[in-house]
Every structure is written in C-alpha cells, then in structure tokens.
Fold each of these.
Amino acid sequence: MRAAISVSILAVCGVVSAQTGVVSPLAQQCSPSLPNVVCINKYASVMPYHFFRNISNATSSPTFGSTSVPNDTSFALVDKADFLVFDQKRGLEILGSEPSYEFIFHVSEAVHEAPVYVPSQNKLYLSQ
C-alpha cells in the first residue's frame, strides 16, 4: 500500500512539473492609479495545477473570482476587483481614469448570452 501511495504522489508531482504554458501571474493590478481594476493575463487560459471552482446549481452560482488557485496567489486580486480587464490597452481606454459603475437593474440567475458594449452607441446589449 505504501508503494502505491508513493507512486501516486510522484505521478502528481510529475504532472505539476511537466505542465507547460501556464500563465503567470494570472492576474495583476492594471495600473497603480486604479487599484479596483485587475488585468487578467492571456484570459487566464492555462491555470496552474490544482485549481478548482464549485459547479453551478440551483442554490449557488460560483463566479470566476471564487475559483481557487492555490499555486498562483495573484488570482486573489480577481475576487476583490470592481473591474476585470482581459485586454489591457483597450480596457483601460474604455474605463478611463476614474472608472465607476451604478446598479441599473436586476438580472435573474438564468443563463445569459455574453453582454456586449457598443461604444459608438454607448449601449450594453444582453439577452436572457
């Protein structure tokens, strides 16, 4: 039994050390003057082993920020941010120097299509 446990531990360690393409850091502050804006590097496309997020069900709706990524402490910034930016150059242009938001209306927990902001119209489109 002890040999089987040792082999399993070595196998997991091998996966961790063999993982390639990991984005690091996953998240970072976009600008020192914008502490509530966090940039996500390369869409957090390759997270380090072991990350975890609870599944969605009728009683809970986990968020991107609630993902546990113990091997990248930068990801803790995500849960505290007011704005997440996936394209730093364009995102900071859109947000400006003093980004803020107002609650406009409640949207149910139902599945939604991705909202799309059209700058030329200054409108946000979403479907439900």
Amino acid sequence: DDPSTQAFLLAALTAGGGITGYARTGSIPSIAAGVTVGALYGLGALRQRNRQPYGVELALLASVILAGSSVPRAIKTMKPLPMGLSAVAVFGLYRFGTLWQRQA
C-alpha cells in the first residue's frame, strides 16, 4: 500500500502505453504524452520514496494531465484504450488527491 510503489506502477503503465502506441501506429503524440506523464509519475515516486517534498504533488499533477486528456476521449469514443487510461487517471486522482489532502 506504499504510494511510491503505486506511482512507479502508474509510471510504467503510462510510459509503456505511450511506447506501445508509437510502436503500433507511429504516433508521436502517444509516445510524447506517455513518456512525459510516466516521467512525472516516476519522479513523484522517487521523491516520495526519498521523503523529499512535492512527490505526492507530482504524481497528482500526472493524474490531472492524464485525466484531462483521456476522460473526454473516453466519453466521446467509448473505446477501451481511453477508458483504461481514464481508469488509471481516476485511480491516481483518488490516491494522490487523498494523500495531498491529508498533508494540507
């Protein structure tokens, strides 16, 4: 139940998804977005694990960015990939939002 482990998992999922999207379709936006959001999750995880400031906030920022791009697409298209990304984003919003609220 360690939040840094969860952030590392989300980093791997989003970066891996971006790389997969690029490999399958040649989509530059997929790899750019996936790797960027994955890097934010990864940096947030490292900062949390090392007890440095702003780890939770970075993971929450990654979730906000992911939700902002995937939820509208999921609602519009109802396709599995945007819906899965939305589920990841909602999990991150809940997990890291709750942690952020407790810190304040």
Amino acid sequence: MSNSSGQRIPVNKFGLTEVFSPTPAKPEVDVVFVHGLNGHPHNTWTSENAKVFWPSQILPGFLEEEKARVLVYGYDADVTSFTDGASRDKIHNHAEHLIAELVANRRIRKASERPIIWVAHSLGGLVVKRALIYSAEIRGMKTEHLRSIFVSTYGILFLGTPHHGSDVAQWGNRLEWICSVMLPKKVMDSQSQLIDALKTNNETLQNIDRQFIQILSRFHIYFFHEGKPTDLKGTLKFIVDETSASPTVQDVERAVIQADHSHMCKFEDESAPGFDLVAEGIQRYAGEAPAKIKRNWAAENQERTSVKHAEAAEATELYSGTRFPSTSELNLTKRTASVKNTPPQRDTPQKNTPQSDSNSTFGNSSLGREQKALPSTEGQAEFDEHFTVEDITNDKELA
C-alpha cells in the first residue's frame, strides 16, 4: 500500500496508523477512518480489483488546501464486539481504547485542539458514537484531557451505519444481514448463538443510539446509504436500507452511494460511484472545521476556568475563620482513629496579632485543641501541602 506520494506505509491491524500527513505543512485537521464488523483498517477501504487504498492514495489530493492528516483505526471487530456478553458493553472497551489512542497520538504532537472528522462504515459508526458519548461524559480534572476528542470533533460521515429506530424486530434483521455479508460462512455456522444475541434484544446497541441523540446536534452529520442490494443466498436485500442508514433528521445531510453494503466504502478511483459525494463532504468539513473548533475550545476553556474558580471559592469558604495548623499539628491530625486516645494538646495563643479570634477552632473537637489565631503565610503553605478537604472530612468522621 502506498500514499499519494508513492511511499509504502504498513497499516497496523490494531490501533491507529497515520497513512498521510501533509509535508512540509503542519496538519490543520485530522480525518479518522473506522471500519465495522469483521472489518480491517486497510482492507475495508481498499478496492477489490485495483487494490486502491483510497484514504491515502486518492483522498489527500483533494485536501491539499485543508492540510488534512489521515489516520485509520483498527480493532478486534469480531461478533463478540457487538454482542451483549458477560461485560454487557464490550463495545465500550473499543470506544475507550479509541479515545485513549487518539488523545495520546494528538497530545504528543501538541495537537490536542486540532479539529477531527470521522468516516465510519457500517457498525464502525456505532464505535464512533460510543467513543464520542464516552468523551462527552468526561468531567474529572484528572481525566479532562480525554474530553478533547468530543470538543474537537466537527463532523461525522456515516457510510451504511444502521441507526436504530422504533422497529426492534427490523433492527435485529438488519444486524443478521450485516453478519451474512461481512462474516465468512464458517464463522456464521460456528458462532450462530452470538449472532442470535447480536440481532435480538441488544440493549447495548440500542442504548448507544438513544444516548447519541442527545449530542448529535453539536456535530455536522452526513448519512450515506447503499443504492444497490446485496445477494443473500439468492435473495436481493438492502442490508441497511435508506430509512435506517439515512434517517430523516433535522439539519443532517443525506445521500445515496450506488454500490452494495460492502462496496460502498471502496473507491477504485475518483470516478467511482459515490466518491465525489464523500470526498466533497470531507473536504468541506475540513475547510469549515478550524474556525468552529477554535470557538469550541474557547468556550470549553472558559467553562473549565469557571469551575476551578468555583471550587476555589468553595474551599475558601470552608476554611474561612479557621486557623491553619502547624506541621506538628498536621502530623497529629492526620493519624488514624487511635490518635483520639492520646492526651489533648493545647496551642499557645499568638500575641499582638490583630487577626486573633478567641472563638476560632479547627479540626476535631474530640482532640481538645482550641486554635486562637489565623495562620502566617508559612503555616498556610504547610497546610496546603499536607492537608486536603478530604482529610478534614475524614477527621470529622472519626470523631
């Protein structure tokens, strides 16, 4: 396989592979491809006859002005990945891993705020949805870097992804048909129970669609559906028909690709049916994304700053009117409950200080300590280094 410059690039079966990057220009947008059931990060996007891998051999020529970097993602996409099993949500594991890998790939290149455009085929669209749901839910200060994928995502192109509707029975049939097309016969025969679980009462897949609806309006969405049926044992069927792959949603684009389900993501050249539609969508999103994502990050950073200020104000209010302990007092206070059996120690009040407050106390009253003055700057620094709000709460619980 080679990129547009002719250089051969090996594609990893699992994880991210960068298959094109503009040189010497600095990339301004990331385009990420995600395959579906039984797919492969190279084969899913490669034409069968000419063996053209279009994400690196055709697409970059249409993204020169947009300076887009192209990546493909691979994962273990067997039937169990989309089946309710013992873990109930194995697809979530794929989503977490995708987010972690993409965050790491971008952070080490100092590109955490670079816009992202996703291209997903079939059930790969569900992995992308789950990944964005997971990233959007991140709120902790220690994991907020994982939220960067949600903030940076501008658009998603879904190629033949089944979007669950109200007809649960039809949903199950579509999943069975996808298995018939994407899985070898020996797998269909050996994993029939798993396939039955995939097509019926699959709460995981249904919940993904319900949760994604809540954040869908944040992104630019382009639905593509297959224009040709697939031969299933002598019967022609649309694996994911128009109503499922391209549901009517307000402010969402829809188009048909004149190919069957497994070939709608394989373009042999730029004249292949559907290529112009997909390439134009990626190109347009790549051009529009930087300005919008810049505004996203401005709002995100403002919100994070407001949260930190609110937390600081809450901490200040908690400590208001108290005396911060010295190092020796910290050592006493942070002991276990057995400390309560030691004789109480009383501080000597500081003299000639205008901040003296004979009614001020700190810590656990059962320790019998009466604090009568606010701390010096040095004392407060010692407190900040060794003592946390959680410690105070724990000490109170020990009383």
